[in-house]
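It would be a great kindness if you could assist me with a short task in structural biology. The matter concerns a single protein, recorded as an amino acid sequence and a row of backbone structure tokens. The record follows directly beneath this note:
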Amino acid sequence: MSPDLLLNQENALPWTERLNFARDIARGMEYLHERNIYHRDLTSRNCLLRELPNNSRQAVVADFGLARVVQVEPNTQPDSPRKMSVVGSAYWMAPEMMRGEVYNKKVDVFSFGITLCEMIARVHADPDDLPRTNSFGLDVEHFRQKCEDCPPAFLQLAERCCDLDPSVRPWFSDIVSITTAIIQELDSAPNGKYDITSRGSSIRRRQ
């Protein structure tokens, strides 16, 4: 995704479209993880957009230069953390990888979470713009101040994906289900609990 799309507030980016991008990326990552492929460099700039015949856009996961197929050792759990190289882009890198610890597929979920934060607040992942903690996590309190209009469930999903504890982060299969449910809720918004502006810049609760 280009910085102009994410950062330029003059470009309309409705919440439904952001959620569809999130689901597209999650589906792509689910496909990789089902085949024991770790991306290890999932960032907003490594998610490309393509135009569809119906004039909508679809997000596609790209740049597999640091990806790795992880062989499952006998008598071990498929998703057991293991020692692997510290690779990727620092702003999106999971804390456990940053510290050189063992890790599993959940490092990709953390990177996805940072990408969600970029989409939600329309800021760059640079800690000068996206609040972070000293432990390399998301500074939830200060981040929320940047996204008051975000659908609560979408914000909560981003926060879970960025949790310091990998076991708290959802799997991409769960993320696909969660984003689908939020999209369905927003699709019913005109007669429901949200008002969606024509530019998609805000969603406000009805009183």
